[in-house]
């Protein structure tokens, strides 16, 4: 948050940042290509290699790249204020906290078995 | 706060937010944050009355061992309604939605919250949720406890799905309020009101809002999954279908632990205001208190597993959570010592709001140290789910939050309504509530140490005497709150006119007229100093 | 002087009947004392300041102190150190609670609505009673039939949830003879507070003798076996047999051969087949004045022999 | 401070804001905060998915094998395209090209319709073959090998259903925007609602970007 609450004005000013149409076009194209890539990898892992441990991480990685493209350009976070970037990052951070501790518990449980 | 607002005296008959528009419709459609604050006040106090009646019923049943007035099933329902109403409909919305709504814009010198329409919407959403919750009373009731633990909540034949939907809806309202407050604090501060000049109440409300935004959505999805579980049996939380009931507890406490700070942080904020104002002294360690609010909010997300030390959670997770829980103790201790230091060499007077603030310190100290006993993993194994826990969280939630809410209401009452209440009676309410509270809940620590589990309809005879004392205490609390209702109602009807700044406090809300005009300030304030400059 | 505080702490707690319980007591005593000191500082300081700096006149000047870095450091750091010590201590004890001794005597305890059912390796089964020998490592393996229960023995300072769908465990080594309470500390429905069992610590000889006698159970007359089962399966928690008083479900006193009014408006004679159906599929016919869905089904939980024994016992309730 | 005083209080600016830009920035921050709650809400589902996927990989693979990835693939492209048109409509508004903006908004709605139609088609197919969530799953008809396949379809319907609900809400909002835009209510001076709904629509797209590979491909 800005120490001085007037400073938002200086950065934004009246003219909102206009992202060129060219960039939107390129981003959309990149997203299409990445979607194809996802399917391509799926074909590779599923039909050629018949399953691989890499399938999930790779698919997730590509999805993450796509998501960040959408975030940065379509949603304009790249050109947005620091506040908003922090706010949005917080969401993902606490999501990570949720999965981290839940998984920590489930994967460190020592199994007790019946002896009857 | 030496703000260069105009300080002309305001004659009676002036236009203010109460008399500017007339008629019920003008209240139910008002976008004015002050009026919305009052709408919340009326509804929350009403629900508090209902929840309180359930509490009295619980204590009445537990006066003696064996069945007294209720059947076990009825008792379980009463216990559930007491918890659910008090948590979702009273303490979570309590201070933020009533006092926060009313004073957040006033204290930062804004004309309103950032999104007034959203603000009104959140009240309607809250009421919708509350009405659904109340409807369950007539459509099957609910007996799961406010925690909705699976698989009991999946199996029970009561109206759990409906209650879950109600909690979901009220969660949405909480999110909207939080969102509104964050943007208001970020964007609507008056000229010169830097982040380190906002009153500590605002820091507390702000930290609370962050929690509301970040934690509540997970509660939403958890409750939605629970509803799915009940309707379709998807098996995520149902062990019979390969699900994990302990995972439900993780999801639930990911919200509900931060939620206990949603309940207590605003109370801490109120207390900071009260102690500074009635000591006529600048607050000790402003920065430390402000950052400890944020610190508590942040760390509160990493400690939820301390509700699950014996739930079948792994040893590693238990120890990590115990360690992290200890860390929350530090910012809390900082706050306590800072309040104490503020009293040092102050100029202290003991009007009813200050009595509540000092009462808060007393009860919160006890609530705090017993919290450490519960955070210690080995002793928690013994105390978990016993009356020790019940006593602990009542000391913090009731002794803390409700004391602060009452103190805050008495403190700001002249500003909200432009009238004064009967001070003698107000002090009497404090005495009743404070003594009643300790009589009710201190024996419960001992009961817990003796091993009496919570949510018990009946108990072994060894626990009788302490339970009876506890029940008698609950009547004292009941009288105290009834008396405060009387104090407030008579003050509203025939209270003396209050001056604009009866306590001589320095924060911005006292620089405008009582009650404030629709746009809060007659002239936009320009702030040149911190909030507690008693020089 | 430590023993006095120790007495102070343990006065409110049930007898510590294991070494671990004594260790927990020590930690608790330490916590109590340090908490007491903390409260004296905080509350005492508050009262002292409130008295000393009471307002004399409205115009009197208060001191202008904004902060004191050294003090603030102190009261952040000292609590932190205390908290960490307490954490370490707690961890140490908890770790022992989670380290299961080898060759412990294993007892399976199953929580069900609303009773504790214990099964010994020899096949002996009991309800709401866990009998163990003194000075022996005992490992309780917990399971649940329906919802989450929590196995709590206050005197041993141990507690563990019984989670349906998996096993959890606790262990103890009792060093005192006597009867101790077993409470359920996870809310589990109607009779949650009635789910009280007895943990009996006896001498080795008495334990062995008891186990032997219990094993003879299989040779009992069929109605007596039914009576035992009636306890073990916690039927007795909801149905009275000795008289016509109503607990949760209808009394079974003098029921056999009588007529029952049903919620459907029909009536039925109480015979073997009706009893059998009511045990295996309790919601098929509901006696007038009682709610549906209260009694769990015992389908798959009783062998044919056991079922006959229970029915025989009900027949004998005259 | 450099507060622009060129247009202090036009009709869109509420009384408690200094000027249009102040209001715009505030509204936008509100939207971002709301997006955080969306992320955390869907995130809860993703966390559940991840955990059970790790616990029951075979069951999830079986579940995914019954889904038609081609439909998901087409839907991904449709949504990406709709995000593009949504972004472009704001771009046009910023340049005051109002009629083009209206076209782009309607195009976005059109994409939403296509998406929902494909979804409806997919759902009906699943219903007919007995792939229902939880205990409703028709074990005999589907020939399910994993005992708890219903859980996979629980996740599937929960995630896609909640997402579909968001698409529907987004479509409703965009229709409202398009109608207002047709009346010329938006332009370079004022397009706050379009920006806000735009961000909402992109988050819907963003969530689908994760849903597609997780549900249809990896399984």
Describe the structure.
The complex is a heterotetramer of chains A (116), B (535), C (318) and D (219). By secondary structure, chain A is mostly helical. Chain A is flat and about 70 Å long. Chain B is globular. In chain B, helix 10 runs antiparallel to helix 11 and helix 11 runs parallel beside helix 14. Chain B has a two-stranded antiparallel sheet. With 535 residues, chain B is mainly alpha-helical. The N terminus of chain B is likely disordered. Chain C has 318 residues and is of the alpha+beta class. Chain C folds into 3 domains: 70 residues, no CATH class; 112 residues, Sandwich (Immunoglobulin-like), CATH 2.60.40.420; 96 residues, Cytochrome c-like domain (Cytochrome Bc1 Complex, Chain D, domain 2), CATH 1.10.760. Chain C is 37% helix and 20% strand. Chain C has a 5-stranded mixed beta sheet with strand order 3-2-1-5-8, with no helix packed on it. The model of chain C has no long low-confidence stretch (mean pLDDT 87). Chain D has one domain: Cytochrome c oxidase, subunit III, four-helix bundle (Four Helix Bundle (Hemerythrin (Met), subunit A), Up-down Bundle). Helices cover 76% and strands 0% of the residues of chain D. At the A-D interface, helix 1, helix 2, helix 3 and helix 4 of A face helix 1, helix 3 and helix 7 of D.
């Amino acid at each position: 948050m800005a120490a001085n609450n007037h400073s938002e004005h200086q950065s934004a000013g009246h003219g909102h940042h206009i992202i060129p149409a060219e960039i939107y076009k390129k981003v959309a194209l990149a997203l299409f290509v990445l979607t194809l890539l996802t399917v391509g990898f799926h074909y590779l892992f599923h039909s050629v290699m018949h399953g691989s441990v890499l399938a999930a991480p790779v698919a997730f990685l590509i999805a993450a790249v796509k998501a960040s493209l959408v975030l940065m350009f379509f949603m304009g976070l790249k050109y947005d204020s620091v506040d908003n970037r922090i706010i949005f990052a917080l969401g993902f951070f606490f999501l990570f906290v949720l999965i981290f501790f839940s998984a920590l518990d489930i994967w460190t449980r020592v199994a007790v078995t019946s002896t009857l | 706060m030496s703000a260069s607002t105009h300080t002309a005296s305001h004659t009676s008959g002036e236009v203010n937010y109460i008399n500017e528009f007339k008629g019920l419709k003008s209240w139910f459609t008002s976008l004015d944050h002050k009026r919305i604050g009052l709408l919340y006040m009326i509804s929350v106090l009403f629900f508090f009355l209902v929840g309180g009646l359930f509490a009295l019923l619980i204590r009445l049943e537990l006066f003696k061992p064996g069945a007294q007035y209720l059947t076990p099933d009825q008792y379980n329902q009463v216990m559930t309604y007491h918890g659910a109403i008090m948590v979702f409909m009273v303490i979570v919305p309590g201070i933020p939605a009533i006092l926060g709504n009313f004073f957040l814009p006033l204290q930062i010198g804004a004309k309103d919250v950032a999104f007034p329409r959203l603000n009104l919407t959140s009240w309607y959403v809250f009421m919708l949720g509350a009405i659904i919750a109340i409807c369950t009373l007539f459509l099957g009731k609910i007996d799961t406890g406010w925690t909705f633990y699976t698989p009991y909540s999946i199996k029970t034949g009561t109206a759990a799905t409906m209650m879950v939907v109600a909690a979901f809806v009220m969660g949405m309202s909480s999110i909207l309020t939080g969102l509104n407050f964050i943007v208001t604090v970020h964007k609507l501060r008056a000229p010169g009101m830097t982040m380190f000049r906002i009153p500590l109440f605002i820091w507390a409300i702000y930290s609370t809002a962050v929690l509301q935004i970040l934690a509540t959505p997970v509660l939403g999805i958890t409750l939605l999954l629970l509803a799915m579980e009940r309707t379709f049996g998807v098996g995520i939380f149902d062990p019979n279908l390969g699900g994990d009931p302990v995972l439900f507890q993780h999801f639930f406490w990911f919200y509900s632990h931060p939620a206990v700070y949603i309940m207590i942080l605003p109370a801490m904020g109120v207390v900071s205001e009260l102690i500074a104002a009635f000591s006529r002294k600048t607050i000790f360690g402003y920065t430390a208190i402000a950052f400890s609010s944020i610190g508590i909010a942040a760390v509160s997300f990493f400690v939820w597993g301390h509700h699950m030390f014996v739930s079948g959670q792994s040893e590693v997770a238990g120890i990590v959570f115990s360690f992290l829980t200890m860390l929350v103790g530090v910012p809390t201790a900082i706050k306590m010592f800072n309040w104490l230091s503020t009293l040092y060499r102050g100029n202290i007077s003991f009007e009813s709001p200050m009595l509540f603030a000092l009462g808060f310190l007393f009860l919160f100290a006890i609530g705090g140290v017993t919290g450490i006993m519960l955070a210690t993993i080995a002793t928690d194994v013994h105390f978990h789910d016993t009356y020790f826990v019940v006593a602990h969280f009542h000391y913090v939630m009731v002794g803390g939050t409700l004391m602060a809410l009452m103190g805050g209401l008495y403190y700001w009452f002249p500003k909200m309504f432009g009238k004064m209440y009967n001070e003698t009676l107000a002090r009497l309410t404090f005495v009743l509530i404070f003594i009643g509270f300790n009589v009710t809940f201190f024996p419960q620590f001992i009961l817990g140490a003796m091993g009496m589990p919570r949510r018990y309809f009946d108990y072994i005879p060894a626990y009788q005497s302490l339970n009876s004392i506890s029940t008698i205490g609950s009547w004292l609390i009941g009288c105290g709150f009834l008396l405060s209702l009387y104090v407030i109602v008579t003050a509203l009807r025939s209270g003396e006119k209050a001056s604009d700044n009866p306590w001589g406090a320095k924060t911005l809300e006292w620089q405008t007229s009582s009650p404030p005009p629709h746009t809060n300030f007659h002239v936009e304030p320009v702030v040149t100093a911190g909030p507690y400059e008693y020089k | 002087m430590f023993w006095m505080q120790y007495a102070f702490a343990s006065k409110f707690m049930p007898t510590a009947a294991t070494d671990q319980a004594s260790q927990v007591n020590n930690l608790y005593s330490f916590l109590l004392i340090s908490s007491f000191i903390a409260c004296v500082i905080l509350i005492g300081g508050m009262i002292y300041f409130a008295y000393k700096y009471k307002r004399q006149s409205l115009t009197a000047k208060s001191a202008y102190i904004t902060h004191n870095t050294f003090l603030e450091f102190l009261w952040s750091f000292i609590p932190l150190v205390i908290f960490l010590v307490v954490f370490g201590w707690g961890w140490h004890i908890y770790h022992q609670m989670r380290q299961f001794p080898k060759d412990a005597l294993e007892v399976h305890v199953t929580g069900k609505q609303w009773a504790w059912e214990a099964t010994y390796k020899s096949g002996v089964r009991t309800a709401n009673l866990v009998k163990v020998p003194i000075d022996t490592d005992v490992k309780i393996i917990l399971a649940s039939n329906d919802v989450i229960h929590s196995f709590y023995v206050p005197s041993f300072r141990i507690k563990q949830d019984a989670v349906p769908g998996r096993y959890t465990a606790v262990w103890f080594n009792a060093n005192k003879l006597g009867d101790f309470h077993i409470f359920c500390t996870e809310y589990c429905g109607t009779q949650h507070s009635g789910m009280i069992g007895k943990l009996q610590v006896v001498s080795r000889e008495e334990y062995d003798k008891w186990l032997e006698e219990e094993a003879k159970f299989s040779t009992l007359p069929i109605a007596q076996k039914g009576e035992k089962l009636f306890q073990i399966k916690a039927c007795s928690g909801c149905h009275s047999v000795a008289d016509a008083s109503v607990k949760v479900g209808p009394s079974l006193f003098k029921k056999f051969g009588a007529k029952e009014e049903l919620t459907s408006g029909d009536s039925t004679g109480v015979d073997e087949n009706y009893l059998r159906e009511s045990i295996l599929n309790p919601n098929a016919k509901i006696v007038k004045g009682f709610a549906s869905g209260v009694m769990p089904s015992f389908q798959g939980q009783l062998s044919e022999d056991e079922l006959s024994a229970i029915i025989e016992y009900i027949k004998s309730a005259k | 401070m450099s507060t622009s005083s060129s247009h202090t209080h036009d009709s869109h600016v509420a009384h408690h804001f200094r000027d249009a830009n102040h209001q715009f920035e505030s509204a936008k921050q509100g939207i971002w905060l709301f997006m955080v709650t969306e992320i955390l809400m869907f995130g809860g589902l993703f966390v559940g998915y991840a955990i059970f996927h790790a616990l029951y990989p075979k069951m999830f693979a079986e579940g995914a094998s019954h889904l038609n990835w081609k439909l998901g693939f087409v839907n991904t492209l449709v949504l990406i395209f709709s995000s593009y048109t949504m972004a472009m409509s704001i771009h046009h508004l910023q340049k005051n090209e109002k009629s083009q903006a209206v076209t782009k908004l309607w195009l976005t709605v059109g994409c939403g319709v296509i998406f929902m139609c494909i979804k409806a088609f997919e759902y009906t197919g699943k219903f007919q073959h007995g792939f229902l969530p939880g205990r409703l799953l028709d074990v005999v008809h589907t020939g399910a090998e994993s005992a708890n396949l219903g859980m996979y379809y629980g996740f599937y319907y929960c995630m896609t259903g909640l997402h579909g609900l968001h698409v529907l809400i987004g479509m409703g909002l965009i229709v409202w925007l398009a109608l207002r835009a047709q009346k010329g209510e938006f332009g370079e001076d004022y397009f706050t609602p379009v920006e806000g709904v735009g961000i909402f629509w992109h988050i819907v797209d963003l969530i689908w970007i994760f849903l597609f590979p997780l549900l249809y491909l990896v399984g």
